[in-house]
Amino acid sequence: MIYFEGKALDNIKLLGLTFQSDGGGRKSWDQVLCRVQGKLGSWSARPLTITGKILVLKAIVLPALLYVGRVFPPDRASGKTITRMAFQFVWGSTFEKLSRATLLKDEDKGGRGVPDMVNIILAQGLATLVQNTRKGDKAVCAFARHYATPFLRTMGLSVLDHRMPYSWDPPYVYRALRAFALGTGLPGAGLTSRHLALTENCPHGCTDSEHVHHVFWDCSVARRVWGLVVSSVSLNRLLPRSSLTSDSVLYGPPGGCKTIELQRQWRIINTIKQVLWETRNIKVYQQQNVDLVTLRRRIQNLLQDGVVVDFRKNERLAKEKWGVDHWKELSI
Questions:
Q1: Which of 19, 120, 300, 325 has the fewest CB atoms within 10 Å, measured from its CB?
Q2: Backbone phi, then psi, for 87, in 5-degree steps?
């Protein structure tokens, strides 16, 4: 079933194409083949040469089929119907005087240049798929690469490229922060309509406008939290003060997380950023301030939960990564 505006429908028609609940395009092909057959019937009544009929196939019939084929590739039955209709139109009857392979050849090779419409439609669909794996919308590229790359690689048409990864299920914090990254300031109208922000200024009482850099670095609450992290003996050993910069907090360690130490630092930073975002939402939604002791406990609990998970997966690697023999040793 297809759900549209709260209603369950067996199919829905958009831009001349019928989308069925089973995901197939059989109904769309039946409709376009019916229209094509009517057009060929009207052109058959005119005294056309074979060359003229071939031009009709290229100029009138093929574009209509390519429009449907860009969305729904033709199945075996539809392909046979297209081929049969084309050659019956060329010869004017069901009796074919020459083989189809001969007519499909170019004129300089002894044929008449009849378009192989089924293969043209399939080639267009393949070209669109290859194009989607290389450029275009980031989500479309990731979707096409995930599902189409395995069989495209067998034909040498696609190469895996993980230099620009795409996450289908990012952390919920980053979903809310996506709007922040679109510009230097908050998109006030959009966030206000969703009750994510009451004003353009920082909800903690700062006079500056609220943006990504301010939330995680310049805000007074963020400054106190980062100061707490630096003053902690346990965290200062795992997260050196020299590694705490605005760029490393917002975008990660320079050069990527190539070592265990950098991966650990980035995990701690993301945990603190999560707490900062939770504090900001509590201020916006509930108009309440969170004291520094509560923030410290929240950060410690989240980090200890992560250490426990790592110890359960692989105790040896967890000890090497966190430098502790037990999760309780990690305290702020």
A1: 325
A2: -75, -30
| Amino acid present at 141 | C
The pair of structure tokens assigned to 55 is 């031009």
- Calpha distance 53→326 (Å, rounded): 82
Question: Which helix (H) or strand (E) segment is 138 a member of?
Answer: helix 138-154
Say how far apart CA 146 and CA 167 lie, in whole Å: 12
Residue 145's nearest CA partner among 172, 166, 127 is 166
Tell me the pairing of strands 17-20 and 7-9: unpaired
DSSP label of 243: G
Beta strands in the chain (DSSP E): 2-4, 7-9, 11-14, 17-20
Number of Cβ within a 10 Å radius of residue 145: 19
Q: What is the pLDDT of residue 45?
A: 82
Contact by Cβ (8 Å): 13, 5: no
Residue 194 has pLDDT above 60, yes or no: no
52 and 69 in contact (C-beta within 8 Å)?
no
Biggest CA pair distance of the chain: 94
How buried is residue 155: exposed, middle or buried, by Cβ count under 10 Å (0-12/13-18/19+)?
A: exposed
By residue count, the chain amounts to 332
Burial status of residue 4 (CB atoms within 10 A of its CB: 0-12, 13-18, 19 or more): exposed
Distance CA 185, CA 213 (A): 9
Average model confidence (pLDDT) across the chain? 77
Supply the pLDDT for residue 184: 45
pLDDT, tens digit, 9 for 90 and up, residues 60-83: 888 888 888 888 888 888 888 888
